[in-house]
Design a protein that fits this description.
The chain is an alpha/beta fold and 367 residues long. Helix content is 40%, strand content 22%. It has 10 helices and 15 strands.
Length: 367
């Protein structure tokens, strides 16, 4: 998979222009606040996904403008496609593929991208929600039905939470509590199987990458944690359902007292350890950044294994706070597919033997 070019109009601070990319490594340099991350963002939205910087499309439109557009020519499955995206204030985004209107959710198979941004440090040191988001975003790209499963789960969770919060004022709500608990357990069992399988593959792929990063000095391990009564996350859906339902039954009164859902896939986590120590507490900034990047590179390997194609790799400010040896590893490791990587100084990428360097200034690529 690759992006031949991207064309923007009133997209944040980017000037109206077309930017062409090489099939291999593309390094985007420039001072801070010149539009480097925004250019990556423009490429990312071509996948049909939301921006990685905001949930609201209106924030993608330049100040003083009513609409913005991002167009691109991509290659996927040995076929070129022209993608057109239009954002207008107060309206739903419009997306076309080769001139045919498409639902953005249907476009995710046309172009897949693996993104690393500074916010991804939160996957190592931040709350569990960030690690769940990591798993869910990756699985959704690999298994289209997974996104619908998550949507169903969230609706059930919201309804059950409403019952638990309001039952004292309206006791009749309790008549539906067990039904929603049952449905939550059914969905949890399915989600747990998906996440457990992906976490296992991620662990197998990320460990060796971290080892290479650190010249053998660091062992990265990932472990998937879910409902305490689940002994084997890879068990059958029936066994997982029974384990989750058993735990829900045990904590039914506790949920009523707390007014919140205490059991389910929304409590899952993916624990990171480096050399046996909890990375949340003991990893240095460089180790945390390296671990997050190892996971992203592992994602790329999983996608290649699953689809036979290498997804586009988007790396935002990846070289910051890495020593020279780790920077060298990154620059040598990102080959094998198309990569767009941002950095502030061209000197940081002088070791690249092959690749295109794009310089950004005031929202425009100048070289």
């Amino acid at each position: 998979m690759l992006v031949h070019w991207v064309e923007t109009e009133h997209f944040r601070l980017l000037e109206q222009q077309r930017v062409e990319f090489a099939p291999g490594v593309n390094v985007i340099t420039g001072a801070n606040a010149q539009g480097k991350t925004t250019l990556l963002e423009a490429v990312y939205v071509l996948t049909g996904a939301r921006s990685f910087r905001t949930f609201y499309d209106r924030e993608l439109i330049a100040f003083g403008e009513d609409a913005a557009a991002v167009n691109g020519l991509i290659r996927s499955g040995d076929r070129d496609r022209r993608i057109e995206l239009r954002f207008a204030r107060g309206k739903t985004r419009q997306m076309k593929s080769n001139g045919v209107k498409r639902d953005p959710r249907e476009m995710r198979d046309d172009l897949k991208a693996i993104l690393f941004s500074p916010d991804d440090l939160g996957m190592v040191r931040g709350p569990a929600s960030g690690r769940r988001k990591l798993m869910d975003a990756a699985i959704s790209q690999l298994r289209p039905g997974y996104a619908a499963l998550l949507a169903d789960y969230n609706k059930i969770y919201e309804n059950k939470t409403r019952i638990l919060k309001d039952w004292r004022e309206k006791p009749s709500l309790l008549d539906a509590l067990d039904e929603f608990s049952w449905s939550l357990a059914v969905c949890s069992a399915k989600i747990i199987r998906y996440r457990a399988g992906f976490a296992r593959r991620l662990r197998e792929a990320a460990g060796p990458i971290q080892r290479e990063f650190s010249a053998g000095a660091e062992e990265l391990d990932l472990s998937y944690a879910t409902v305490s009564t689940v002994e084997d996350p890879a068990a059958s859906e029936k066994e997982l359902f029974e384990a989750v339902w058993r735990r829900q039954t045990q904590l039914r009164q506790a949920e009523l007292d707390a007014g919140s859902c205490l059991v389910g896939a929304h409590k899952d986590d993916l624990a990171f350890t480096i050399n046996g120590a909890d990375a949340r507490s003991y990893a240095s900034q460089g180790q945390a950044r390296t671990a997050a990047l190892s996971v992203k590179l592992a994602e790329r390997e999983i996608f290649l294994s699953e689809t036979g194609e290498v997804p586009v790799l988007l790396l935002d400010d990846v070289l910051s706070e890495l020593d020279a040896a780790r920077q060298e590893f990154v620059l040598n490791r990102i080959g094998g597919g198309q990569t767009l990587v941002t950095c502030c100084e061209a000197d940081s990428v002088s070791r690249l033997l092959d690749g295109r360097v794009l310089t950004m200034e005031k929202g425009r690529v100048t070289g």
